[in-house]
Structure formats: structure tokens, C-alpha cells
Write a structure and sequence with these properties.
Largest sheet: 8 strands, mixed
CATH class: Alpha Beta
Number of strands: 8
Number of domains: 1
Bound molecules: S-adenosylmethionine
Length: 235
Amino acid sequence: MQTAPIKPLKPWFQVIEDVGDHLNWSEFFGNDNPVEVDIGCGRGLFLVTAAESNPNVNYLGLEVDYREGRRTAMRLKRRDIPNARVIGGDGRIVLSKLIDRNSLQAAHVYFPDPWWKKRHHKRRLFTPEFADLLADVVQPGGHVHSWSDVVEYFEVIQETMNQHPKFTICDAPEERDPEHDMDYQTSFERKKRKLGLPIYRGLWQRKPLWSILLISCTEWPNSIPNTATVWSPMS
Ligand SMILES: C[S@@+](CC[C@H](N)C(=O)[O-])C[C@H]1O[C@@H](n2cnc3c(N)ncnc32)[C@H](O)[C@@H]1O
């Protein structure tokens, strides 16, 4: 059986192996505009809408499911959108290995897979390690947005982010009535709201560096050993 050739979608879609071992934003997007990532971008409704509404911001979708990532890239290509791209692969690898620290204006994580069965919870994206990754790559003053329709998982996300020492909690956006059939943040929000389900929205801001340094300093007296004792040449 003959299969259809895979359409070239570069530069809108690439896989992790295509982009080398480091993402230089100026080279990748061809400008120095701020960058935001959408982890698990799915069909790309957020990516397309955000990129068209904010031409001076660059958007990168990260999608482990190549078929979905390619669908999104096809939409970007058809509209010839210059400021949004998709990388196919595990978003955690991109965040931990390819992106400079403090280099993102925002990270968006909409409707991450809930992995309903308890024994599958370990596959969930939001863990303390994932929050640490977000804290590494989002710049001080930058934001993390995460929404879900699964209250139990959203509570986990809230707890993880609220407790993180490098983030503060912000007022999340209120629900608003859509102005047209595609006026939703993402395809999942559209689907779930059409079913009448409630949506839980979260927004956090990366603390400024000085406030983190302040916390470390106030912890010092208890956490650092008495250096005079440890390092004394006489001991
Ligand atoms: C429930 S869908 C939501 C899609 C989209 N954010 C939306 O709201 O319409 C979750 C998406 O996250 C993707 N995903 C799951 N784990 C991922 C990971 N580690 N890196 C990148 N994408 C991931 C899945 O393939 C899926 O497309």
C-alpha cells in the first residue's frame, strides 16, 4: 500500500532532533521579540489566535503527538503566520535541555491530560519537577497560565504552583461569553464549555529575582553551617 508523502512543513513544524541542542530565539524566530510557549498545544487554536492578535510576540507550541503538531503547523502555514512555530516532542525535554533560563515571557499549559486512573497519575505533566522547570525558563515577572476542566487535577496544579517558592498567585481571567464559534482559548475549552462543563483557570507570576534572593538570605542563618568552624585551618 502506498502512503501519502509527508508534506514539508518547515519552518512551522520541526521535531526536537531538527533544532540541535540549543534554541537561540533570535535565530529561531528571526527577531528579538518576547517568546511564549504553549506546552501540549494540541490543534493550535491558542497558538493561531494569540500569534495573530500579538504580532510582536513569538509563540512556540510543543506537542508530543506529531500528528496534532503537524495539524497546527498546517494552520500556521496556510495563514503564513511568521511568529508561531511548533516543535514535535516532549515539552519537558525542550524546557530542560534546549531553552535558556529566564528566556520566556510566559508558559501556557491548557487542559493537560488528566490521566484519570490513579495508577496513571505519575504520567501527568504537572509535578513539582515540572513546576521547577517552569520556574527555570520563565523570566522574573513572566507568567504561567494553566486551565483545566478536571477539578481534582486542577487542585493538584494549584497546590503545586501555589507552594512553589518562585511563583506568586495572580487573579485568573474570568469566564466570558464567546463572540463567535471559535472564540475560545483552546479547542478543549470550546469542547468542554459546549458540554456545559465548568472551567478552572489559574495564573501565576514568576517572582522577581530580588525577592527570591531575599528568601534565601532570610533562610541562611538556619541552613548554612558555621563556616568558621568547618573551614578553620586550626580544626
Ligand atoms: C487534552 S490535550 C489539550 C490540547 C490543547 N492544549 C487544548 O487545550 O485544546 C493535551 C495535549 O497535550 C499533549 N501532551 C501531553 N504530554 C505532553 C508533553 N510531555 N509534551 C508536549 N505535549 C504533550 C497531548 O499530546 C495533547 O495534545
